[in-house]
Write a structure and sequence with these properties.
Blueprint lengths: L15 E3 L2 E3 L6 E3 L27 E3 L3 E2 L6 E2 L4 E2 L3 E2 L6 E5 L3 E5 L4 E3 L1
Antiparallel strand pairs: 1-2, 2-3, 4-7, 4-11, 5-6, 8-9, 9-10
Length: 113
């Protein structure tokens, strides 16, 4: 049997696995099983507004009206953005939005669809 990690929030040793997440029954903290790989320097962990791990090619939904700098256009709440690409920097999502074009978004303003 494999050794499950202790809870990173409360340190409990009674964690259990549920599909792709680890769950702590004492403090109800959940974290992705992929989080164990984060020890590598090459691995980026970019999360959406709900804490879900994002990957290249995911589809996300905008959770807040976003003004497009240098334009009168606005990306409305609920806009679905398909096939995102994760990049380094302050704006960590590179994408194309229908009707607007190529943009960079911050992961804190999107949720995984």
């Amino acid at each position: 049997m494999t050794q499950l990690p202790d809870c990173p929030k409360c340190g409990s040793k009674y964690t259990y696995s549920d599909e792709t997440n680890y769950i702590c029954p004492e403090c109800a903290h959940e974290w992705p099983q992929a989080a164990q790989i984060q020890g590598d320097d090459d691995v980026r962990s970019i999360k959406d507004s709900n804490g879900n791990l994002l990957q290249d090619g995911d589809t996300v939904t905008v959770i807040k009206d976003l003004k497009v700098k240098g334009s009168s256009l606005v990306v409305k709440v609920g806009t679905r953005v398909k096939n995102i690409r994760l990049v380094d920097g302050d704006h960590d999502i590179d994408c194309k939005i229908d009707g607007i074009g190529a943009m960079k978004l911050k992961s804190e303003f999107v949720k995984k669809a």
